[in-house]
Amino acid sequence: MILNKETAKKTAELLLQIKAIKLEPQQPFTWASGWKSPIYCDNRIILSYPMIRNYVRENFARQIEEKYGKPDVIAAVATGAIGIGMLVAEYLSLPFAYVRPEPKGHGRQNQIEGNLEEGQTVVVIEDLISTGNSSLNAVKALKEAGANVKGMFAIFTYGFDTSVKNFENLEIELHTLSDYENLIETAQNKNYINTEEAVVLRKWREDPANWKS
To answer: What's the average model confidence in pLDDT over 1-18?
Structure first.
């Protein structure tokens, strides 16, 4: 869910400016899943740009407080969201933790790193939502540890139907600073892509697993 349309457009523009999101309909990327894709997103690049990371941090913090008030803990999904999640926690003067994809195979075998007490309210920070599986795996770990997960905030989502269903099934609210539709609209308005390329990009999102350039 987009909470602010203007923030969604501005976030999309910033991601395009620093090439955290690249749009290449004519020379598609290959994802780790094997999917061919005209878009590639790496939001970790945001951390290299102080003004942009501050923009993301402050909008996350504002939207979290408007939606849920101050939670007890900010938790991030490892590894991509650790940096921005820690910045949000610092801005809100809140404790921070992060969640690994699975427990460590040595030492204390933690999956959750940081102090988390049973019953504490948690807002989860993520950098990117594709299918939502890894993000929701973190939510499950937090719930199993006794946390009261209020919702998740992410920088960007592709908005795949499968991710929407996955969040609905686990009854977790997802809020994002920007999303695919706002990205394509902004990219076209700012001349990053033309009308024909916008059509291709929207077509890909309908069935990404079987898309061919």
So the answer is: 94
